[in-house]
Amino acid sequence: xxxxxxxxxxxxxxxxxxxxxxxxxxxxxxxxxxxxxxxxxxxxxxxxxxxxxxxxxxxxxxxxxxxxxxxxxxxxxxxxxxxxxxxxxxxxxxxxxxxxxxxxxxxxxxxxxxxxxxxxxxxxxxxxxxxxxxxxxxxxxxxxxxxxxxxxxxxxxxxxxxxxxxxxxxxxxxxxxxxxxxxxxxxxx
Amino acid sequence: xxxxxxxxxxxxxxxxxxxxxxxxxxxxxxxxxxxxxxxxxxxxxxxxxxxxxxxxxxxxxxxxxxxxxxxxxxxxxxxxxxxxxxxxxxxxxxxxxxxxxxxxxxxxxxxxxxxxxxxxxxxxxxxxxxxxxxxxxxxxxxxxxxxxxxxxxxxxxxxxxxxxxxxxxxxxxxxxxxxxx
Amino acid sequence: xxxxxxxxxxxxxxxxxxxxxxxxxxxxxxxxxxxxxxxxxxxxxxxxxxxxxxxxxxxxxxxxxxxxxxxxxxxxxxxxxxxxxxxxxxxxxxxxxxxxxxxxxxxxxxxxxxxxxxxxxxxxxxxxxxxxxxxxxxxxxxxxxxxxxxxxxxxxxxxxxxxxxxxxxxxxxxxxxxxxxxxxxxxxxxxxxxxxxxxxxxxxxxxxxxxxxxxxxxxxxxxxxxxxxxxxxxxxxxxxxxxxxxxxxxxxxxxxxxxxxxxxxxxxxxxxxxxxxxxxxxxxxxxxxxxxxxxxxxxxxxxxxxxxxxxxxxxxxxxxxxxxxxxxxxxxxxxxxxxxxxxxxxxxxxxxxxxxxxxxxxxxxxxxxxxxxxxxxxxxxxxxxxxxxxxxxxxxxxxxxxxxxxxxxxxxxxxxxxxxxxxxxxxxxxxxxxxxxxxxxxxxxxxxxxxxxxxxxxxxxxxxxxxxxxxxxxxxxxxxxxxxxxxxxxxxxxxxxxxxxxxxxxxxxxxxxxxxxxxxxxxxxxxxxxxxxxxxxxxxxxxxxxxxxxxxxxxxxxxxxxxxxxxxxxxxxxxxxxxxxxxxxxxxxxxxxxxxxxxxxxxxxxxxxxxxxxxx
Amino acid sequence: xxxxxxxxxxxxxxxxxxxxxxxxxxxxxxxxxxxxxxxxxxxxxxxxxxxxxxxxxxxxxxxxxxxxxxxxxxxxxxxxxxxxxxxxxxxxxxxxxxxxxxxxxxxxxxxxxxxxxxxxxxxxxxxxxxxxxxxxxxxxxxxxxxxxxxxxxxxxxxxxxxxxxxxxxxxxxxxxxxxxxxxxxxxxxxxxxxxxxxxxxxxxxxxxxxxxxxxxxxxxxxxxxxxxxxxxxxxxxxxxxxxxxxxxxxxxxxxxxxxxxxxxxxxxxxxxxxxxxxxxxxxxxxxxxxxxxxxxxxxxxxxx
Amino acid sequence: xxxxxxxxxxxxxxxxxxxxxxxxxxxxxxxxxxxxxxxxxxxxxxxxxxxxxxxxxxxxxxxxxxxxxxxxxxxxxxxxxxxxxxxxxxxxxxxxxxxxxxxxxxxxxxxxxxxxxxxxxxxxxxxxxxxxxxxxxxxxxxxxxxxxxxxxxxxxxxxxxxxxxxxxxxxxxxxxxxxxxxxxxxxxxxxxxxxxxxxxxxxxxxxxxxxxxxxxxxxxxxxxxxxxxxxxxxxxxxxxxxxxxxxxxxxxxxxxxxxxxxxxxxxxxxxxxxxxxxxxxxxxxxxxxxxxxxxxxxxxxxxxxxxxxxxxxxxxxxxxxxxxxxxxxxxxxxxxxxxxxxxxxxxxxxxxxxxxxxxxxxxxxxx
Lengths: 189, 181, 616, 304, 367
Known about the structure:
The complex is a heteropentamer of chains A (189), B (181), C (616), D (304) and E (367). Chain B is built from seven helices and five strands, in the order H-E-H-E-E-H-E-H-E-H-H-H. Chain B is α/β, with parallel strands linked by helices and 181 residues long. Chain B has a single domain (25-170), classed as Rossmann fold, CATH 3.40.50. Chain C has helices spanning 3-21, 26-47, 69-92, 99-118, 122-140, 148-176, 181-187, 193-211, 219-226, 229-254, 261-285, 289-310, 313-344, 360-374, 380-394, 398-423, 439-457, 460-472, 499-520, 553-588, 593-615; strands spanning 53-58, 61-66, 487-489, 495-497, 524-526. In chain C, helix 2 (26-47) runs parallel beside helix 4 (99-118) and helix 13 packs antiparallel against helix 15 (380-394). Chain C is mainly alpha-helical and 616 residues long. Chain D is mostly helical. Chain D has one domain (2-302). Helix content of chain D is 73%, strand content 1%. In chain D, helix 1 (2-36) crosses helix 10, helix 1 (2-36) packs parallel to helix 11 (252-271) and helix 8 (182-196) packs antiparallel against helix 10 (220-245). The longest helix of chain D has 35 residues, at 2-36. The interface between C and D is large, with 78 and 74 residues.
């Protein structure tokens, strides 16, 4: 498998010399990092020339500290049985990328989601603004600087918990006189 | 001669008996709890023997089952559907998520306490509630109907403003026709 | 002076006066128009008695006008519907151009139809027939240039019919030496076989064109839908009945008298049945109300023709009863379409919906007419259809009854489409300004629909004049007194009292309606059509929730493999052929009067030569 | 005067009988279905409870006058056809308005209700209702053909258009028409599958496709009236078949046995089949059932 | 001006929809001109919530991704964590995982029998199969304590060892189910109306299937032999003997036939697993979850579910909580891209059968 991976990496490198390759995995995977300008051409190349027909998954990771979004395309070749992680990074403050849905139609859906959840603008993406959320007014929720717990506490009602630490079964016994069943006794405090 | 009050009482008892034994559940799987409804309706548990059966549209349904967590987007539809149902109508909260948010207590998109938005008649707890729990929930609802205590719709009508304020708080774009009876 | 002549003079004078009155005052013109339709109609029923006649002799040709019971029966259609349509027309035509032409032709049509009913000789019959054709032709092209080809289609078919008729008249004259219908009837059984066949065939061709029988119906949808609706209700309601009138006379007095007539009867009856099926299928397909009604007229005339062609007593009664009912409901329905067109500006089902709360009276009229059309008791259409089925079954037309029944079941489809398309469905904002039609339009519609209700519940009222009319044609009726209590005779000799049944329906209906209204309305609540259970979703503003396009797609998917051979191949080829013919005709018809004249003369010469050949 | 009163009382009794029997048959249908599906199922009187509950709903909405009257139309149609169909042979307690030609009358009065309901469904403005109605009307053009063929065959064979006459024929000859005119019976039973609208012909209110079709917007009292009318209508259809093909019934027990056996045909067939699409259903009716109808007519014409 | 086509909503409140989602149809007649999937009714923001929880707490959320068949998500997560950390899994745990996965697959297929037949109006088979599914859920209950949510396959192995006598119970259940399957087939596949309703409906062509990224039984229904259990084998699938059924045609019928075969293959796998089950540890213990940090990096593990490929992507920044997790459900492609395209030109009555046949599971799409 190692030779096969080397062979594939060399083929990619021949076309895209400026990529960074990470190949220290002991299973059928290697990573390719590329700048955002070449992402279209490498994906086209992988799909049409090298037979990586299947787009397994696409991800966006918010690296807040580094001020960048990392977009990962996981492509799979049914013939070689290898998956490649193609990574690219875009600026977090100006997240713009050209749409990729002409390569795989399902990327259309992914891009709509990223636009909504991370605020990444895909130029040329023709779709309604709303995909999953409706009437959302806050910041894109999947960004790491959005605090969901605080938002939820502020927006939604909360049912108050019990203030005492009394055992429920004992409380029931006290109220109704119902016996604690035998099997439940061992859980009582 | 029977006086009006007594005859009304008898009529109420008969009507409540009918309502109790004929519960048509709206076919709306709002959350993951809907997965335990097919087993509830099929051979081992067979809810139909209690008079529980599905109804396709809100106009015909008696019970709105909120099967689990409610996202804000679904809440809007649920309110719409609830208001289209015919009085008397009942809401059954299904699963922990409807009671206190369950495991999505910190999610920005799910409500935590259902009875602030809709009048809940019966809660069924558990994640997820087993078919036995669902049946016991229905049994509890039947009990309440028979006693004439399942009057969520009346409560909703009386406290409409309060419910509306709560609903509008999380649904900013309110385009629904008004509840006008 | 002779009252017969009076009526014609009043009609003609009224027409001319109305035409010119438009230059003085529009209101005066409308009043004159109304007067010149209503006054002669009034005189017709008050001054004329049965048997009253007027005779002229010009150059040895005798023109004989007289009223008999059969003509009187059809005069009910012509003058009754004509009067209603006239009242409607005044309001409908308000604000339109070339009112003079419209009114003139309208009155002329009524006059010519009255004339046809009074004519007892073939010459005056033919003259009035031509006046009728021309006036209706001018109405067809009333709406402007784009309908020229439709007008020409109508004109050509009418011309074919007219010349066929003319040739028959020439043949009759050459044999009997007289133009009187009476003489023809008397001489017919003794004619040679060729004449016995050709005279009815040629006459029937002429009548079948007006009655829009397949395959001569091609003109009808276009002409019906392109005339002004106020006229179309007369066009489809009364004018097409002139074909039925003629056909009835031909069948009863000529064909039934010879033993070979059975072949005629079978062929024409089947043609009527096929006309009904094809007309119905095409009507279901239409998205435009006018077209739908036009094809439906074709289909309904199919039933009537079948009934008349079968020729048993019950069948004739059924055919004539249906003819009167058709005049009523189709007249009303075209008026309904006119009202909708006037108020909304469109007659397309895909564009307009939910008018029921805006135009309740129009809907009421449409509902009653549609129930009558569909043949659902207790309205009139049922009695007619019931008699038709009885007569078909008892006269051993087993397959024809299936055909007719299929067409009448399929008719429910377009009936529902008509009501749904205009009045039901979503109430759109776009049509929120629509108001009920003016009273002058609503009143005739409602009167006609109530009339349908009355005739449906008390069919005896109509059956006795029909019976009288048939007697006038020579039918001997031994059950005369039974008609008064609306007892219908089944072909196997069973006596039926239908009227109480219809009472029962009305009683039960009222009981439940009143019960539900009193009991149920209290706790119910009206909601708008936007508040529907659309799967919990809230429809957006621009989304169309009315189902109106391709309304019966599954039905046509089912019909397609069954009917493709029969309809598409034959009908389409025929249609294409005819279209090509008209294209060719249009080349000939350059719009130059001389070419028309040449064409007409050539046609006459050919016909005469052909007729000459036949006479030898 | 006395006879009028007698007749009215009899009509009410007939109506009550039809209502009760129709409702119980509906409940038994649910019970049988449940048993086939390995379930206990609801009690046989479940439909009464459902009806009572629907009737006691406190509110009901309508979208206008046609929707308000839609259920009334169905009720009128059901009751009217019930009045025409003889329930028992020669029983004064169940009078009927029998007359010559009532078979044709029935064909039309049976359509009256569905068409009225279709108007009500149309007024709701719900697209599901309208689509359901178009499907229902299209389906009607399907099953009416074999049904009419069967009826025409009976009419021409026995020279009558009256139900009572046909019953008398069977009483006199001692053979049921289902044996003497087997093809007509087969065609009619096949048409009955469509009339009952159970699977595979439940295309009008197919839940997975159109929610519940024309009755999508009807709830509470309206649904109650519709349900009652439907039950009466089911009884009418079954009784008509018994009258026409199975020799009628002398007393109630025989009537119930015969109708129930007949009712089992659509019920059991429905349990094993997938729903047709509209065009498939129409085409099916124009296929074998119509062929049997044609055979029935041929039999009636040539082997009288 | 209103649109020409009628708008029809299938869902969210509709008996024919496979969960809480909506398909907006534009129809003319009963032919669909345009279909738009709308999702988001079930969006709970799992991926956001998992960033707030530590690596073990995340595991409890996993089974909630898709309710009909929750185990592939657990499996994917466990394996992704193991890949990232390099943690070994005991042999017995691997076999138990396969057993659980296949049982879950069987359960989901039983539910599919119900859904597919319910959408076509054949409720009898649905009632039978959903009733029989309870026997599988009973097994799960005994093994894991939960009927639907198992929370059983976790990083390092499985949560609990097999109870005593469990293997025999599984085998008995399999015998029972195998007998029942014959009854289902009699009613379903031998039914001419079923064939009429499914053949030639909802066609996905071979080329389009590859282009659109279709996976699982839908792809196998187009005649392409593709199964992650074979292509990218995990756990002990490479040691088991089973077949991957394929069918030509790409319509509902072909997919139904594929699934019919797969149920039998699942039973076959379960029998083999029980036979080969080794003894030993079932769990490679993880450190204190509060302090359990994973190395920086990312990993992606995928599993074959009834709907096709599901996968879990995790990215770690070296802390005790994930930087990002992402669940790739098969329905993400099937429910949006594919459904919208397949529905164009279809009949209204085929919407629900097509959705059931494509295996659209909305919680996978919006998570």
